[in-house]
Amino acid sequence: MSEGRVALVTGGTRGIGAQISIELKEAGYRVVANYGGNDAAAEKFKAETGIPVMKFDVSDFDSVKAAVEQITAEHGPVDVLVNNAGITRDSTLHRMSSEQWHAVIETNLTSAFNTTRNVIESMRERGFGRIINVTSMNGQCGQIGQANYAAAKSGMKGFTKSVALEGAAKNITVNNVSPGYTDTEMVRDVTDDGRAVGRLSREAAHLGKAHAHLRATLAAVPYPVWVRDADLALTLCNEAYARAVEAPDPDIAVAENRDLSSGETARELRALAARSRAAGVPMSDRFHLVIDGTRKLMEVTEAPFGDTTDAAPQRFTVGLAHDISAEEELEGKLAREQATRSGVLEHLSTAIAIFGTRTNLIYHNPAFARLWRLDPDWLREAQPTYGDLLDVLRDQRALPEVPDYPAFRAAEVERFTSLIDPVEDLVHLPDGKTLRRVLGPQPAGGLLLTYEDVTDTLSLERSFNTLAAVQRETLDHLHEAVAVFGADGRLKLANPAFETLWKTSVGQGDSSPHLSAFLDMLRDHFTDENSWRHHRFAVLSPPNMRTPHRGRVAVIGGKALDYACVPLPDGGVLLSYNDVSDTARIEQALRERAESLSAASMLRADFIASLSYELRTPLTTIAGFSEMLYGEYHGSLNAQQIDYSQSIAETAHDLVAILDNIADLVSIEAGQAALDVDAFNLGDTVAAVVEGSRAITRRRAVVVENRCPADFGWMIGDQARIRQILMHLIGAAIKDSPAGSRVLVAAHRAADEDEVEWVSLTVEDEGGDTGGRRSSANSGLILGGGLTMLLARRFTEMHGGTILVEPAKGGGTQVTCRIPSGRTDPMDLPDWADTLPAIPTGDAARPRPSANAP
Furthest-apart CA pair in the chain: how many Å? Predict the structure, then answer.
């Protein structure tokens, strides 16, 4: 990976910088070493190492910028930057000049900004960069006479951490190296031995003070602190340690080598110190110890350090015991709360995921795995990073389609360092789903993500908005005036018709008209005080007493309004008003016309009744005298005279029948006709009617055949009206039949799908429909000679039946009268019904020709 990379090392020709330059070159980097003023040393370094050198002032931004541009042109963009350049201008602060301060700050700290600022843009564009800042332990611990140097090195550490956070998303790492004292040309630059002796004296005094301060500091520390030597024996402890081991003072605790515990726990405490010294790093463990008579959970830390004051250096460890009993209790409480929270989250339908500070997945609920169709075991064991998870989802086409996925991925991962407050957005997936996502930073670092499928919610919202818009448009275009008053009594909704009718509109909040005020306003519009009071009382009733009601009121201007009041489930009320002035006027006109027609109908009925009465007597007289003439009661007549007399009698009888028919029709139309329902034998009735038509058939030379069997059985109905139906049908058939033809009369039974029994009476002739029977029976109008057919239809309908007129198969006309037989439970019949012939079944129920049938 280092082949071809370009590295720039500031202060890279002497001391630590020179060694860094050499090591980078040996690792395969193309190194450029910077120096500030010693040309001879730089040329010597170049000759010995073959590393190119470049002189420029790192404290000057423009000089650095020009140098970086030259390096980029000659060697390529800088991939590795080592900020090593530094100087010292030692002096105690009360003697330090401004020039000494600024010289060190600009060279040791500002130079890092100058170089980093001129290379980092190129690194971000290429997605790679390594920056190493050489600081010092003095930046952490401080040093007498080096306030400027320590401040610069401490600032360098803060600068390193900040740039590291900014560059992480672009694969740019920034680290610092903090060496201790290193024997280089810079620190060996001593002018004379006197100054060295003076410095050593000052350092000795400082060490004395530091030792005293250390003892005072240890005494002030409320936690036990101790130091172990190479044999793990105590060499130093503070007062808190002495109290913990119940020693009078720290010196006695050290002399008696008292541990914080005894037995196995004491061995484990010493083993912790041994492991720390062997590994060379601090180590911690938790122990339950009895301190001040109370069992406490203590976190014990052992950290190694070296003593170089003797000729033979030794390794020591410093220990610290910190009481974490409260933390233990809090951890237990937190664990219980987390268990409770996890139990709740496990059953939520909302997908939840928690990512740690390293962007790795540390928790997810089952809904998260179901949503993204991922293996829960893989999520739990692999704990993928957020970026890796995005890659997996992209392969499954479970992420929004974006033109630049790398940029999208980088922006998503960058949220771990840039997100401060929770954010919410909608994620539209390729499969049509829409997810509501909430991202929130965790207090301990990392992110909490929740996903909720709102596809159906958005669909319902769109449907609701569409429905609301449709309803709004519908209300706006209704002719009726419609308004809704809410549970607070304020006008919430009104269509334009309502606003136009009552000159009021919906306002904002309390500015909308109140229901009571609106009803009081109507008082000036109503013409009837009582109607207004009733309307107001019904509308202003308490919600639990309101009932839907409607009515009609008259308002000023001659208008009539139909109103409706409908209580709503939310405690509101809907009012609608419809202007029916024209309808009311038409209704009144129709009512007056109906009354006029009723009076005319009664007058017509009275006239027909009077006419029937006045004509019946003379016609009866004419018929009687005619019968006396052709009966030769007062002398014989010749054949022609007899024929004339018979014609006169028949005509008189026909006129009487017409009058009877007219009277029946008038009574039916007036609703005065009623049925005298009883049980009777239909076969006898048909035979009697056929026999009574013989006189007419002889004059017409037409034969009437009865094909209804005498034992046809009984039915329930008005026998007289059934006889009239048959007489009218047979009479109409005879009238339309030519001489020498036949008229067939038959009857049969049948049940429909509802098991209702029907009786069908059929009259068939061989003539045409010259009497308008079909039109009279089907239309209910008197056409031609259709008065008899109209009466037959009316009587049939009174029985709940129908008449059908259709052409016969062999020519002529067939009329079928279909009437319910009315037969129910025999227990409902009169006692004499038992004397009627048995009801035929099977073949016996089918019509049979009469004995005189050809």
Answer: 195
Q: Do 187 and 14 touch, CB atoms closer than 8 A?
A: no
In the predicted model, what is the mean pLDDT of residues 588-601?
Answer: 76
List, for residues 542-553, the tens digit of each pLDDT value: 767 778 888 888
pLDDT level of residue 569 (50, 70, 90 thresholds): confident
745 vs 734: CA distance, rounded Å: 12
DSSP structure string for 281-330: S-EEEEEEEEETTEEEEEEEEEEEEEE-SSSS-EEEEEEEEEE-HHHHHH
Closest listed residue to residue 482, CA positions, set 490, 472, 469: 472
User: For the chain, how many helices (H) and strands (E)?
Assistant: 27, 28
- In angstroms, the Cα distances linking 687 to 164, 245, 681, 734, 797 are 121, 137, 10, 16, 23
Tell me the CATH architecture of domain 674-845: 2-Layer Sandwich (3.30)
- The identity of residue 578, as a single letter, is N
Q: Among 279-288, 385-394, 437-446, 782-791, where is mean pLDDT lowest?
A: 782-791
Please give the distance of CA 609 from its chain centroid, rounded to a whole number: 77
What does pLDDT average to over the chain?
A: 81
DSSP 450-473: EEEE-HHHHHHHHHHHHHHHHHHH
Lowest mean pLDDT among 444-453, 567-576, 627-636: 627-636
pLDDT tens digits, one per residue of 514-565? 888 888 888 888 877 887 888 788 788 776 777 888 888 888 777 888 888 8
Q: Which of 29, 35, 149, 577 is catalytic?
A: 149
Q: What kind of architecture, by CATH, is found in domain 478-579?
A: 2-Layer Sandwich (3.30)
Degrees to nearest 5, angle at CA 682 with 681 and 683: 95
Q: How big, in percent rounded to 5, are the helix, strand and coil portions of the chain?
A: 50, 20, 30
Domain assignments of the chain as residue spans, ordered by start:
6-177, 348-458, 478-579, 593-652, 674-845
In whole angstroms, what is the distance from residue 20 CA to residue 443 CA?
40
Query: Which residues make beta-bridge pairs with 747?
Result: 761
The three state secondary structure string of 561-587 is EEEEEEECCCCCEEEEEEECHHHHHHH
> Would 348-458 and 478-579 be classified into the same CATH topology?
yes
Eight-class DSSP state of 485: E
Q: Domain 6-177: give its CATH architecture.
A: 3-Layer(aba) Sandwich (3.40)
Predicted TM-score (pTM) of the model is 0.35
- Answer yes or no: is pLDDT of 20 > 50: yes
Pairing of strands 491-494, 481-485: antiparallel
Whether 407 has a pLDDT exceeding 80, the answer reads yes
Task: Say if CB 791 and CB 736 are below 8 A apart.
Answer: no
CB-CB contact of 382 with 369 (8 Å): no
348-458 belongs to CATH 3.40.190.170? no
The residue ranking higher by pLDDT, 311 or 582, is 582
In angstroms, rounded to a whole number, what is the distance separating the alpha carbons of residues 54 and 617?
153
Using one digit for the tens of pLDDT, what is the confidence trace for 486-520? 888 888 888 888 888 887 777 665 567 888 888 88
How far is 784 from 732, CA to CA, in rounded Å?
A: 11
Structure confidence at residue 231 (pLDDT): 87
Q: In what order do the strands lie in the sheet with 573-579?
A: 491-494, 481-485, 573-579, 559-567, 549-555
CB neighbour list of residue 274: distance below 8 Å, 6 or more residues apart: 232
- HEC letters along 733-790: HHHHCCCCCEEEEEEEEEECCCCCEEEEEEEEECCCCCCCHHHHHHHCCCCCCCHHHH
Query: How many CB atoms within 10 Å of residue 586?
Result: 11
Instruction: Rounding to the nearest 10 degrees, give the CA dihedral for residues 728, 730, 735, 737.
Output: 150
Note if 149 is an active site residue.
Answer: yes
